[in-house]
Amino acid sequence: MAIPVIDFSKLDGDSKTKAEALAEIANGCEEWGFFQLVNHGIPLELLEQVKKVCSESYKEREQDFKRSEPVRLLNRLIDGNDGLSAENLKKCDWEDVFILHDDNEWPSSPLNFKETMKEYRTELKKLAEKVMEAMDTNLGLQKGYIKKSFSNDDDDNDEPFFGTKVSHYPPCPRPDLVTGLRAHTDAGGVILLYQDDEVGGLQILKNGRWIDVQPVKDAIVINTGDQIEVISNGRYKSVWHRVLAMKDGNRRSIASFYNPSYKATIAPAPELSGAEGYPAFVFGNYMSVYAKQKFMPKEPRFQAVKAL
């Protein structure tokens, strides 16, 4: 069983080809919650440069990771000399990570890191908006509905948030004892992942089974977050996923999040209201709940934010 791979360029084809692409995207959203895009319009030379600068950036962080809490805990457990148990590692992720957004400080090395990632994020943001327009069409919503719902109606300058998480999952001597990234659903809107095309480890939960998200060279993996689930009134479910720690290889993962403004009010689209009945809430309030419950079942999060 493989995650759907969709030729995104078909959206720009004739009416028949476009309809086929929309149907494939609808299936990816409704049946999987994850799908991969090829021929997505992002220059392949840029993707290669992104891989290069992110890998070089990690080399400068590698020694810091070796001194990190997960590494120290695992080494203590392997040594077995202080009564530490495997339970101590269940709340750890075998992950080196930093975040990029428009207002925080980015790594200054390598020299072309900032320039490359700025260009990449610009291209990826355009792709995210095109994906959301396809979702609008498939859900029977007005073009631009999802993007508009991610903004604060009371402030035209309060736009959706776009962040990028650069992660590496280094080789782990005991992947049976620690997870690369614990199972969770994503809090936000549309997630766009440029994953390693050689080292696997990403899995989604489908019908009670963990399924690999197979590496596909130059593909962008798309998944829907909790806010898309709410706007679609449950038609597009956010999906549990995780990253396994691997004994060999250093997995690179660059995930970007097209999320609502913290002041945006999220609710089921009026055209899709019905039995599911998700509550309306301010996204910032949801994030306050999510920060405490990220690795817990998602349904109580919706009830908790309803009470705020």
From TrEMBL:
Alphabetically sorted, this entry's keywords are:
Ethylene biosynthesis, Fruit ripening, Iron, Metal-binding, Oxidoreductase, Vitamin C
Q: In which pathway does it act?
A: Alkene biosynthesis; ethylene biosynthesis via S-adenosyl-L-methionine; ethylene from S-adenosyl-L-methionine: step 2/2
> What EC designation does it have?
1.14.17.4
Q: Which reaction does it catalyse?
A: 1-aminocyclopropane-1-carboxylate + L-ascorbate + O2 = ethene + L-dehydroascorbate + hydrogen cyanide + CO2 + 2 H2O
Q: Which domain of life is it from?
A: Eukaryota
Main EC class the enzyme belongs to: oxidoreductase
Which GO molecular function, any one, fits this protein according to its record? 1-aminocyclopropane-1-carboxylate oxidase activity
Q: Name one GO biological process term.
A: fruit ripening
Which cofactor does the UniProt annotation name?
Fe cation
Recorded family membership: Belongs to the iron/ascorbate-dependent oxidoreductase family.
Q: What is this protein called?
A: 1-aminocyclopropane-1-carboxylate oxidase
**Per the UniProt entry, what species is this protein from, by scientific name?**
Acorus calamus (Sweet flag)
Q: Which gene encodes it?
A: MAO1B
